[in-house]
Amino acid sequence: MKVCVAGVGYVGLVTGTCLSYLGYEVTCVDIDSQKIETLKQGIPTFYEPGLKELLEICLKKQNLSFSTDIKEATVKADIIFIAVGTPPEENGEPNLQYVKDVSNSIGEALDCNKLRVIINKSTVPIGSGNWVEMLVNEGVQKAQGKDCHPDFLVASNPEFLREGSAIYDTLYPDRVVIGANDERATSILTRLYKPILQQNFAPPIKELTPPAGVNAVPLVVTDITSAEMIKYASNAFLATKISFINEIANICEVVGADVKQVAQGIGLDTRIGGKFLSAGIGWGGSCFGKDLSAIISIAKEYDYQPELLNSTINVNLKQRHNIIRKLQSALKIIKGRTIGLLGLSFKPNTDDLRDAPSLTLINQLSKMGAKVKAYDPIAMDNCKKQYPDLDVCYENSIHDLAKGCDAIIIVTEWDEFKYMELSELKTLMSIPVVIDSRNIIEPEAAEKAGLIHYPVGRAANFKAIGAGVS
User: Are residues 206 and 306 in the same domain?
Assistant: First the structure.
């Protein structure tokens, strides 16, 4: 089977590269010619562990190509993935212009030579399967007239990729979801995913070895609407779980409990599970906020008010401001202080800054009159490029960042920060205040190093407060 992937963002490029590695002939298409030329040289257009190595493997095999010509790629393909962006509008609804444009373009390119399956890989509102079918037909009629009736089917195949482990999640997923209203589409997609479902391929690199004991991947076959809802419901639940533990963390602080111990205690209950129970500054990134806003907007269309989902967003926003409140509690006056941020990306192992908590902190602290410095091992170049007017001084190391700081906020839990020398921080800082918004430092270690440590949902180290804090 020949595959066309429209869109070379996180989902499109990772999906196309992984399918190419599994032996399919894949053409990735995008309107951005600069991205396409960069990818032809084997250079990823974003940071993702293992992606560069996998690109090199597939380009050498010569079954992965990149193009700006969607017509040529569509004509060759048996399966066409729509993996373009659906960024949120100001009202929370997803911007579907890219989906509309690419669906029309696919329709204009279709011929009657064979059956093709067109798959929504982008996260799209409920009911988009019917809408994409209509848009493809509009493209057909525009280019070829009403007498042309190409044989195509529309299906939904939502992605569940985590940035920072996207290739791993593609090759070793928890499940594969196929939403289709025609058995032919289900059969074709089941064949496409057979290597993943049966786990009968060799790992591409040693860093991408399969999880122990996994010999097969569950397949969920459903109708298109249910598949679309599975994607939204998955992200809504995970975001809610994070907001829940942050709400519990805030209560832990006032009653004197330790949220890490609480999370461990409740996570051992198999009905709850321990994942996504790390209290901190809250979630960011391109998915949770966008998908929550979209499902809330869908619910309101049907005159339903999703109170729990609204609260999930509100708790997350409040959590970012709670970090500022901790800083105020430690320093009292923020104006004129030098504040260092360890981490810019919304999570480790990515350079993605979409809805990153760091941006909220930088803007808020700058408004309060603070000088803000930042260090991130990967995301600084991306931040400079995307936010050239951001009021922040970039540093080249933890050491450089700590010099002269009145406080440091740990924003992203990079491994480099987990293993940094705490006693050295104290000697470099003007005031050794550390706001640990990811709970990566144990209070005992902070106290031993002489740091004034403010974790989330755990007892703050007040013993060191005094000298230099005014």
Answer: no
- Residue 87 pLDDT class (50, 70, 90 cuts): confident
Report how far residue 467's alpha carbon sits from residue 469's, in angstroms, rounded to the nearest whole number.
6
Q: How far apart are CA 362 and CA 344, in angstroms?
A: 10
245: β partners: none
State pLDDT tens for residues 417-426: 999 999 999 9
The CA-CA-CA angle for residues 467, 343, 163, to 5°, reads 150
Instruction: Tell which residue, 58, 121, 117, 55, has the closest CA to residue 84.
Output: 121
Tokens of 364: 């808020």
| Largest interatomic CA distance in the chain | 83
Question: What pLDDT score does 43 carry?
Answer: 95
Shared domain for 166 and 65, answered yes or no, is yes
User: Does 34 share its domain with 108?
Assistant: yes
What pLDDT is attached to residue 65? 96
Q: And the tokens for 360?
A: 């909220």
For residues 243 and 218, membership in a common domain is answered with: no
DSSP one-letter code for 234: H
State which residues form the domain around 88: 2-222
Of 222, 250, 270, the one marking the end of a domain is: 222
Contact between 191 and 168 under an 8 Å Cβ cutoff? The reply is: no
What's the rounded Cα separation, in Å, for the pair 435 and 49? 28
For residue 2, the SS3 value is strand
286-303 pLDDT tens trace: 889 989 998 998 899 899
What pLDDT, on a 0 to 100 scale, did the predictor assign at position 129?
87
If asked whether residues 218 and 229 sit together in one domain, one would say no
Catalytic residue (choose from 4, 18, 287, 405): 287
Based on the domain organization, do 343 and 242 belong to the same domain? yes
Last residue of a domain, which of 203, 222, 241? Answer: 222
What CATH number corresponds to the domain at position 40? 3.40.50.720
- Read off the pLDDT band of 127 (50, 70, 90): confident
The domain total for the chain is 2
pLDDT at position 19 over 90:
yes
Let me know if 287 is a catalytic residue.
Answer: yes
Strand bridging mode 152-156 / 176-180: antiparallel
Q: Are residues 163 and 256 in the same domain?
A: no
CB atoms inside a 10 Å sphere around CB 101? 16
Q: Are residues 259 and 338 in the same domain?
A: yes
In angstroms, rounded to a whole number, what is the distance separating the alpha carbons of residues 373 and 394?
6
Q: What is the average per-residue pLDDT within 202-217?
A: 88
Mind listing the pLDDT tens digit for each residue in 396-405?
A: 999 999 999 9
Mean pLDDT of the chain: 93
Distance, CA of 209 to CA of 199 (rounded, Å): 11
